[in-house]
Design a protein that fits this description.
mainly alpha, 3 helices
Amino acid sequence: MTVDYSDVLAARAEKAAAVAAVRQTHRETLQAVAVRLEDLLTDDAWGVYTTLLEQTRATAQAQLDALQEQILGDAVGEDLIKLKLHAAYCRGELEAFRVALALPAQVHAQAAAEGAA
């Protein structure tokens, strides 16, 4: 008795074709984003934006440093909890700024890698 796997093979072939189509669409989208990113990064407005973002990040870092000094100081009870929560918020804000500043370079590197492949 032979088992017919033609349905399974056909389903796998359809899935592989769908995955290939999605990957091609992703590659094309990434290349289009990279082209637009080149336009953005060469624009003067990008320099102004990153400068403002970096200044805002520096302010958040200074605020976090001040909070950490207060936490290590004589804060107790509810005040200590509030300071720790605010410090956690500041750490999240700093991470968001770091990601925002690093994102264009990451997208550009990924597009270059996809273009090379």
